[in-house]
Amino acid sequence: MKVLVIDDEEDVRFVVRLSLARVGDMTVVEAASGAEGIALAQSDRPDFILLDMMMPAMDGASTYRALRANSDTASIPVVFLTAKSTAPEVQRLKDLGARGVILKPFDPMTLAADIKAILTP
Amino acid sequence: MSATALPADETRRLAALASYDVIDTPADPEIDELARLAAAICDAPVALVSLVDGSRQWFKARVGLELHETPRSASFCAHAIAGNEMLIVADTHADPRFENNPLVTGPPGFRFYAGSQLLTSDGFRLGTLCVLDHRPRTLTGEQCSALRVLARQVMALIERPRDAARLERAEAELRRSESWIRSERQQVERLKSDFVATVSHELRTPLTSIRGSLGLLASGVMGELTDEARQVVTVAECNSVRLISLINDILDIQKLEHGQERLELRPVPLRRIIDASIAAVEVSVRYRIAADPRCALLTVLADETRLVQVLVSLVSNALKYSRPDATVRVAASERAGMVEVRVEDQGIGIPAEAQKTLFQRFHQLDSGDSRAKPGAGLGLAICRAVIDLHRGRMGVESKPGEGSAFWFSVPAASLEAAAHGRGDVLLIEDDAALVEVMAAQLAAEGLSVRTAGSAAEGLLALRERPPALLVLDVGLPDVDGYGVVEELRGSEMHRALPLIVYTCRDLTPDQCRRLELGPTRFLTKTRAGPDDFGRAVVELMAYDLDSRIE
Fold first, then answer.
1. pLDDT by residue (tens digit) across B298-349?
2. For the whole prediction, is pTM greater than 0.80?
3. Which chain A residues are closer than 8 Å to B204 by Cβ?
4. Residue of B nearest to A104 (CA)
5. Do B201 and A83 touch (CB under 8 A)?
6. Which CATH number belongs to the domain containing residue A50 in this structure?
7. Of residues A15, A22, A84, nearest to B208 (C-beta)
8. Structural domain containing residue A52
9. What total number of domains does chain A contain?
10. Contact B107/B146 with Cβ under 8 angstroms?
11. Would the pLDDT of B374 be above 80?
12. What are the strands of the beta sheet with B449-452, ordered from one edge?
């Protein structure tokens, strides 16, 4: 399973990569910004995208909309990663069309399983 | 004519006079009346209320004199205000100060003057109430006293508009200050809330990396650690998790206390809440938890997730302060429309003094027990805030050494509870047979019911007294349900009314939106049975107009 992680925090990407690769046995591609993420989504065609909400320049919502607007990436499921845990915020992300929401800080040992549970219909 | 001595405080006196804004204003009938009274009492043909400014004396009231003002140099009053006493000039011809005064030498030819000072509350002499005569004479002691009293009354009347204006200005100032304080307070609350949210968010991002890295290390997926190294990493991981739950608790209480949390109130079997709570804590605990069998019979109107959170917190606390072999009991009872849940332990108990502050933020109990893991002291404050939002109550009974009983109450979800102390239900429905069935169902549970067979009749009943709940048919003979809702939306008293739309047709989402008032439920007559109707009534009766649960 190939995942694209879009997050501006290098340390967070590092932990997500280790967690998904070592515990979840996934292949991880990383992008440090929304723009880079959109390009990688097109070229690498991941099975799903883990998208950080709070990013400078192009935030998670704009990145999500751009991914949806592009026919090459429109069908890739997106799971949001956010540090804002309020119920309205989570609802907002779901209303945007996100498959699911993972809250930061997450448990590195269950992250892969949590994402799989979200992606399994 | 001799030069008039100026009062010692002349500059300030003039400023005081100006502050009353009385010079050159129209006559005041009440002051005129006092002047007439002075003339009558003193048996004098002329009486004046004279105010002395920098250059003239101006008459606010005058009896028996055509002049409106005279130069200050021709004024008796200018002399009167320079002294401390009432000025009486028995014969102007015998007083050198007035030998050249045109009012003495020419018409009206005054021979007698008596003036009582108009003294402000700050001690400034603005002028006089004076009486004058064309013949030499004097006043009796009684007449002097009366003139002084009348002068004080005149002064009170002069001060009145200024005092009123000052009061008005002060009130306006107060209103401005209050509104400023209110807006500042709101601003501070907003900033505080934003600050907490931002800081918590900013803390969470680095904690994601810390907790993640430590978790991966501790789990061994990065390679085996020595026992000592694993211990070190586990300490760090546990504490990062503790820090995260502290941040979550801070955000949680902030949300609850600032009305940013909207409860999802539904009728929930209490048993389900208790089972979920016990399951959540028992995972890692060896203690016994016994639930009262009566709990199985009760249904509460609650936000399930939040109520489980409260019960988990109470049961965890009870276990934390109990001996390993002790039993924690969960009991419940229903009274007066509320369900009370008690969590009883046989633990160390809480001293009376400590019970007072137990539910405050960051309160911590010194357990004296090294097993007890210190928390942030937010758990009970969060519980209290959740129960407050349910409009319930929360408390504790405890004796040191014997144990504690924490209890809370939340609304019961039953028609009987809905009927308790709340308003009535108004049914607007033209099908008489259906009205009879619905009214009978509600009345059997002790609810008061009013009925209306048409929109017009219904609106009349609504205006007379808003019900606790409105049940509305869409197809009415006169105005349809949409018209009724539109009318009610325009009324402050009715726009938040809980509503059940009971209709024959299936409604489109757009039609539903047009029929929404306060909390609204839609029931289709062909599909919804009496139970569905009863449930909707229970749910919506929990709202009332004065204190809506949100």
1. 888 888 989 999 999 998 888 888 777 777 888 888 887 788 999 988 888 8
2. no
3. 83, 104-105
4. B208
5. yes
6. 3.40.50.2300
7. A15
8. 2-119
9. 1
10. no
11. no
12. B449-452, B425-428, B469-472, B499-503, B520-524
